[in-house]
Design brief:
Helices cover about 40% and strands about 15% of the residues. By secondary structure, it is an alpha/beta fold. Strand 19, helix 22 and strand 20 (about 675-680) form a beta-alpha-beta unit. It is globular. The mean pLDDT is about 95. The structure holds iron/sulfur cluster (2 copies) and magnesium ion. One iron/sulfur cluster (SF4) binds near residues 497, 498 and 499.
Length: about 1000
């Protein structure tokens, strides 16, 4: 279809020194306007050219398109204008309504701009009386959304004043767009005074824009089989469903469709698969609201989500449950029991994890649940579907060896023998709903808004319930209780040396320690564990290590780092993983009691070592990060150290998804009500965003100080002097200043002067605030690097925590400038050819920036020290933190050992560059890791991102890994030199 001659002409217009020209001149008022008008004829010609291209495409393929395509009744009176994916559902609904005699139609927009007003108008049937234009966008303050405005102009310019036109919004952020909403849009056109502008799909009880729609209106045909599956991100449900689609597509005459919905949690994310099978092509571009079949692959979901909402009466329901058939009922939450009794489906159960264990398949229950689906749904004859599953297993697992194939085949047979059908009683005694106690004590907003989102009913939250400025409460992740872990750590108090290492590394702040007055134990549950505290400073106090088993992800990284083993039983450590289910009830009580024990105040802690730092309350807890995440322990530490005075400017990425993605937020406040305040900005400007925090805080503090000086004489004693000269270098200093400011506020309340009234709301800025900018390597090394460099070079007192996973983790593992030489990543599938950018070295070259490179798994004390030094430094600081990640292709349980190996081989250096040292005449750069003891290859061998290359391209891998070793050697030597030479020159006499 492409004219070669035009391509040649285009190429001839390229910039080339062979026929030199300049482009991009700065144009002044004399000619700029005229120059803009030169292009009109191209825009005018474009619609015809596009139509010609569509026509030749039709000739070649038989598929005919127009700039505007009309579908519906020839004598339509009401028409919806829409473009993009929304067209499919409107077309389906128009067919349904016209078959029932309604005069309705759809105008699909295929070329939006340049907007051809003439073609638009002539595509509308002459009978049309009213048009609703739907935009999937919102432009606050405009007279209407963009497509609507173009259509209004088109009707005006083509003299069709008798057509009433209204504009509305739908589907923002992929909000569902269903036939019920489409019908409501047509109904609005029937009203004597249609709503304009309107919204559809939400309940706007504030400005009243939304159209009411009948949720029960459905146009799904009876001969379309609809199945919904609730699975866990890692349990293989989605993969199995994709396979089921293929099997049904290949072995039956049915058309098939699948939608997969993922939540944004990284660990234990829920997946919902919506599958349709039917005798005609399926146009329904919305999720299933009424399913013949619902499967719940994780029993915990029954406590948290309304999985029965979609199940049609007398449909089929399949549950994976660890309980024997006679016990299943008594372990269902009340809400599930009520729905089952009400809807009376055929109810099937299987202990898929038991089958998986017996067949040696670990936690992979996909094949088992897929077998059950085919057996129950009867879409295909049972023998045929089982044969197809087995054929697929042989194909997919062949390369992994006979044993794996056989295990999966056994799982299929065993699944059928373990699958049971349960009878649903006519009525059941009322029991306590498990969901209710968890949220019962939550604040009203959590119960009524966040609670709804948590159970998957966020669509029903009205406009009035949401904050107008996007401000949400913190500390809400504690209400989730996701019960993800099959196994959780259990403490052996007699073995434990109370080192705090497990607490330090826990990515989810699930395992915690406290020291406290033993008198508190009078109230403790019988199973609550406690021992005398071992540190001399804690003499007379007791120590407890407590796990929030319902929030644990079961990553076992805490057990891996525990340094203590039992002398009598080497496999037993001071913490050990044990099945969660039987511990859940007791540990829930223990955790509740543990929370009641007062936390040590930050000002009482010296933070001199890890064990002491780890009794500080974390103000970042139960995030949605991956199990075993390497980033979150650093953020947790940050909040333990400075959480009461912390403002975080976050760069979009993993840290914004586990840090601030609704429904819940992991940042939390302490019992004093103080805690991190957090906001997020783009990759492109997050550093500048954080610098803005600093500049505005400093300005407000300066103004407050000015006002305070003006009030000399009004406030008795030395309070003003003390506030203005306070040392706020540590937690104790900050606490003392907070007390002074409280006194000041009390004094200001009784002073009539305008300065006092102005100072009152600014007084808190006199207490030191710490601004930390947090982001990943995709931000700091690549996209936000220019801004980061600018902010660090500004000399402002901002701290940067760069969570370095050496890859764009949040978007699926693309290569960044931080990716090490030889690593395989997206866009570096043949291994990265260049070494990692040395961001720390660049930052050190300024001389006035505190820079540290840390790896918690290699030396936790070093990490702690670097955080304290960075915070204490009165200027910019950058901490580059080695963060292991699932994208590395590693065992996350032992990932802290990978950090150690990276340091032992010199792949990662531990250092601190402190400009204060230089001003004292000492070398600023301290290299805190020893000379490499092992070859780099030993580290590379631990991670799939490197091993993959050895498998795929062994010869190249060998060369690249040799390069990697050379680079490590050169870098080590360079740093040695720098550490020696960076002391300031001795003063000459
Ligand atoms: Fe924390 Fe993982 Fe240990 Fe659970 S298993 S307490 S999430 S480190
Ligand atoms: Fe106790 Fe082991 Fe935790 Fe250290 S790491 S506090 S020894 S359980
Ligand atoms: Mg990253």
């Amino acid at each position: 279809m492409i004219d070669e001659e035009r391509i040649r002409e285009h190429r001839m217009r390229a910039l080339s020194p062979d026929h030199p020209v300049v482009r991009g001149t700065a144009q002044n008022p004399d000619v700029y306007f005229q120059a803009r008008e030169t292009v009109n004829r191209f825009y005018n010609a474009c619609p015809d050219i596009v139509q010609q291209a569509m026509d030749s495409f039709a000739e070649l393929t038989g598929r005919s398109y127009h700039l505007f395509d009309y579908h519906g009744a020839d004598d339509a009176e009401r028409v919806i204008v829409v473009m993009g994916s929304g067209c499919e559902s409107v077309e389906e609904t128009v067919d349904y309504l016209t078959a029932r005699g309604e005069k309705v139609g759809l105008l699909k927009v295929r070329l939006y701009r340049p907007f051809d007003v003439r073609r638009f108008s002539s595509a509308l049937p002459p009978s049309v009386k009213a048009v609703a234009v739907l935009d999937r966008t919102k432009e606050p303050g405009s007279a209407g959304e963009p497509l609507y405005l173009d259509c209004v102009t088109a009707l005006q310019e083509t003299a069709r004043p008798n057509v009433k036109i209204v504009g509305g919004r739908y589907g923002l952020s992929s909000k569902e767009f269903t036939p019920a909403m489409i019908k409501a849009t047509f109904d609005n056109l029937n009203a004597p005074e249609p709503k304009i502008p309107f919204s559809v799909g939400i309940h706007d009880d504030v400005t009243g824009t939304s159209l009411d729609f009948d949720r029960s209106f459905s146009i799904e045909a009876d001969d379309v089989f609809r199945a919904v599956f609730y699975g866990l991100g890692s349990d293989g449900t989605v993969g199995a469903n994709k396979e089921s689609i293929k099997i049904i597509g290949e072995h039956s005459p049915f058309y098939a469709q699948a939608y997969f919905v993922y939540d944004s949690k990284k660990a234990g994310s829920m997946t919902i698969s919506h599958l349709r099978f039917g005798p005609r092509p399926i146009r329904s571009s919305y999720l299933i609201a009424q399913a013949n079949f619902v499967a719940c692959h994780q029993p915990e979901f029954l406590d948290r989500y309304s999985v029965f909402d979609q199940l049609m009466p007398h449909g089929k329901f399949l549950l994976n449950t660890p309980y024997a058939s006679e016990e299943v009922w008594s372990h269902l939450p009340q809400s599930a029991v009520e729905q089952l009794v009400d809807k009376r489906p055929r109810f099937y159960a299987i202990d898929a994890h038991k089958v998986a264990r017996e067949c040696g398949m670990g936690g992979r229950i996909n094949t088992i649940m897929q077998t059950c689906f085919f057996a129950i749904s009867e879409i295909l004859p049972r023998d045929q579907s089982i044969a197809a599953i087995k054929e697929h297993i042989r194909k997919v697992y062949e390369s992994k060896g006979n044993e794996i194939v056989q295990r999966n085949l056994n799982a299929v047979d065993k699944a059928l023998s373990y699958l049971v059908e349960l009878q649903i009683p006519q009525s059941v005694p009322v029991r306590t709903d498990i969901l209710t106690p968890a949220l019962k004590d939550a604040p009203a907003f959590v119960r009524e808004v966040i609670g709804k989102m948590l159970i998957g009913r966020g669509d029903q939250v009205p406009v009035s319930a949401l904050p107008v400025d996007g401000t949400f409460p913190t500390g809400t992740s504690r209400w989730e209780k996701r019960n993800l872990a099959q196994e959780v750590p259990v403490w052996e108090p007699d073995l434990c040396i109370q080192c705090g290492k497990c607490v330090m590394v826990c990515p989810h702040a699930v395992i915690r320690s406290k020291v406290y007055d033993p008198a508190i134990l009078k109230e403790a549950p019988a199973s609550f564990k406690s021992r005398e505290a071992r540190l001399p400073e804690w003499k007379g106090l007791n120590y407890t290590l407590q796990v929030a088993v319902e929030d644990c992800t079961g990553c076992a990284i805490c057990v891996d780092v525990c340094p203590v083993r039992s002398k009598s039983e080497a496999r037993t450590k001071a913490i050990n993983m044990r099945p969660q289910l039987e511990l859940r009830e007791g540990e829930r009580n223990n955790w509740d009691f543990f929370l009641k024990i007062p936390d040590r105040e930050r000002r009482e802690l010296s933070f001199a070592n890890v064990r002491e730092s780890q009794v500080a309350q974390p103000l970042f807890e139960f995030s949605g990060a991956c199990a075993g995440c390497g980033e979150t322990p650093y953020i947790k530490l940050l909040t333990q150290l400075f959480g009461d005075r912390l403002l975080i400017a976050n760069a979009t990425g993993c840290s914004s998804i586990y840090g601030g993605n609704l429904p819940t937020t992991p940042y939390a406040a302490g019992s004093d009500g103080l805690g991190p305040a957090w906001s997020n900005s783009l990759f492109e400007d997050a550093a500048e965003f954080g610098m803005g925090f600093r500049v505005s805080l400093d300005k407000q503090r300066q103004f407050a100080e000015e006002l305070l000086r003006n009030l000399q004489g009004e406030i008795a004693g030395s309070l003003i002097h003390e506030i203005l000269n306070a040392d706020q270098g540590d937690a104790a200093g900050v606490y003392a200043q907070r007390q002074r400011v409280a006194d000041l506020k009390r004094a200001l309340n009784s002073i009539e002067r305008a300065e006092a009234r102005r100072l009152l709301p600014l007084a808190d800025t006199l207490v030191r605030k710490s601004v930390w900018i947090i982001g990943g390597d995709g931000w700091g090394y690549d996209i936000g690097y220019g801004g980061l460099d600018h902010v660090l070079a500004s000399g402002q007192n901002v701290k940067v925590l760069l969570l370095d996973t050496e890859v764009y983790s949040n978007t699926g593992g693309q290569c960044s400038k931080s990716t090490p030489l030889g690593a395989v990543a997206k866009f570096a599938s043949a291994g990265k050819r260049l070494p990692k950018k040395d961001l720390g070295l660049i930052a050190m070259s300024y001389g006035n920036i505190y820079v540290a490179s840390v790896a918690m798994g290699a030396k936790d004390e070093h990490t702690l020290k670097a955080f304290l030094e960075a915070e204490a430094y009165d200027g910019p600081a950058l901490i580059i933190a080695y963060s292991h990640c699932i994208a590395h292709g590693i065992n996350m349980t032992t990932a802290m050992q990978n950090q150690k190996a990276a340091v032992l081989t010199g792949q990662w250096l531990l250092y601190r560059y402190d400009p204060r040292e230089a001003s004292r005449g000492e070398p600023a750069l301290h290299i805190d890791s020893a000379a490499p003891k092992l070859p780099v290859q030993e580290y590379l061998n631990l991670e799939n991102r490197f091993k993959m290359l050895s498998k795929a391209r062994p010869a190249e891998a060998k060369l690249l890994f040799q390069e990697a070793q050379k680079h490590v050697n050169t870098r080590w030597q360079l740093y040695q030199q720098l550490a020696k030479n960076d002391s300031p020159p001795k003063k000459t006499q």
